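Pasting as-is:
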Amino acid sequence: MSLVLDPAAQDLLFREARTANTFTDESVTDEQVQAIYDLVKFGPTAFNQSPLRITLVRSPEARERLVQHMAEGNRPKTASAPLVAILSADNEFHEELPALFPHFPQAKDVFFAERPAREGAAALNAALQAAYFIIGVRAAGLAAGPMTGLDFAGVQKEFLDDDHTPLMVINIGKPGEDAWFPRSPRLEHDQVITTI
């Protein structure tokens, strides 16, 4: 059985898409970011908890502060990307559940009254949303450069608060010259999928 999604879209989102390491200086607009979010917000999360929070780093001063917390190899591309986003998990996501999960508003207190339960749920579901966000960036015709090579505690202290746990930093823009490393191998179907 073939996929319903057009092959060109499959290539754009998956087969031809890779982590970008260089970018042009073409800007990424707030309208583009809004369009990306308006698409990816529909990706599923448990209890519709939607814990992902996105901090856009636009000002030169904020960019300079962020670059200092990146691993050495990630600094040049973070310094030069048109837009950088800090993705974090909101550990107080449960406050929004009465609106986001209206058919069972008491889920806020039944399942997520304790902070450790919230932190685990937020980390997993925000990571799902981060993957949706990367696909959304690609759907907008842009390249994403997600990175976890950073000082997480430093980024949290500099840009977030104790209720938000940083997950990754993503450079966003049009790919520049020599943007791609060679495609790395992937596991085959029979290495991943088991039928029982």
